[in-house]
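Ticket 4471: requesting a sanity check on a complex prediction with pyridoxal-5'-phosphate. Repro inputs:
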Amino acid sequence: MSKYNFDELVNRKNSQSYKWDVKDNELPMWVADMDFHMLPDIKVAIQKRLDIDAFGYCGVPKEYYESYKNWWKRRHNVDIDVNSMVYSEGVVASIDSILKHIVKPGSGIIVQSPVYHVFYHCIENNGHFIKNNQLLYKKGQYCIDFDGLEELLKDSTNLVLLLCNPHNPVGRIWDEEELKRIVDLCKQHNVLLISDEIHCDITEPGHQYNSILKYSEDAIALLAPSKAFNLAGLKSSVVVTRNKSLLKEIQNGLGEDDLGEPNYFACDATIAAFDKGDQWIDELNQYLLNNKKYIQEYLKKNLHDIHLVDIKATYLLWLDISKYTSDSESFAKELRKKTGLFLSNGKQFGRGGESFLRMNIATSLDNVKDACERLNKFIKSN
Ligand SMILES: Cc1ncc(COP(=O)(O)O)c(C=O)c1O
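Returned structure tokens:
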């Protein structure tokens, strides 16, 4: 029997939420955070901290790292030594800091579009160049263009591969064979491998992500509770690598950037999430699967010219609207103007995203139904 109720949502209006800072009739399904009530144990942990009437500077307790270690062992079958982790304010902050301090200025950083758009900002803001190996999209499915990747890895000016694992926005869980091949290629060409694993806990029941840490001693993995438990506003994450000297350099860089100290609530909230959140995540993933199935059926029945990519991870659906447009930016703008449904346009994720929309389904089934009706109305009226 279910313990948690995902049908009942938090009213996030007027709460400084990016996502919900919209007009009354609008339905926002864009920014990657969730509308559900959080795991109650997190609130209890925060309340306990709240009861201490002084929010001074604080450090990272050893229980914080242990909670990651135990969660990754229990949920993902990966052994992570607590000494191979350092705290960082966030995954994007870590990417920025690593690219700034560890990587020679003016280097090529390889990404695989369409990909989380902030990667591009991190690369350019730190004086590097974007080197894109666009994902292959065949028969409605995504895979890595290994020939293209190897070409880029061979170029000695390209020093980093920034992997999104699982991949936002196409929802792929990279499999063992793909990851081993990536690790081998990076090693062969002396390229630093950074694996952003922030979406790893949101997977379809029966499907398991593979951490890069299973296959590499030198890669960097970026882990966090923020997507799984909706804690993005608390700023909690770790950088993990078994390469001790690299970890030390990263820690120094994070220190220089003032990113290495947690806010007053971040650690206890994270510990509660990872120590007590198993059932909540399992039920969440089941709820998200039901939302996805509803949309799948709805599209099949009413909008069969929209192809829903078969995502196995993240709560971000990737809708192929190429039968209607190759300009998803204008499409999404008009959709919002005419129906209030606010989705992310695929163009912002780079090449290959021009005729896609990204839909965040981490909301109630009622909202998902409403979104389908709005989309249908828009398409039928055009
Ligand atoms: C792939 C990916 N990495 C990082 C982030 C943001 O991480 P943080 O809030 O820890 O900076 C997001 C947010 O959507 C994301 O999708």
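Notes from triage: The chain has two domains: 27-38+278-380, 43-276. Leaving this open until the requester confirms.
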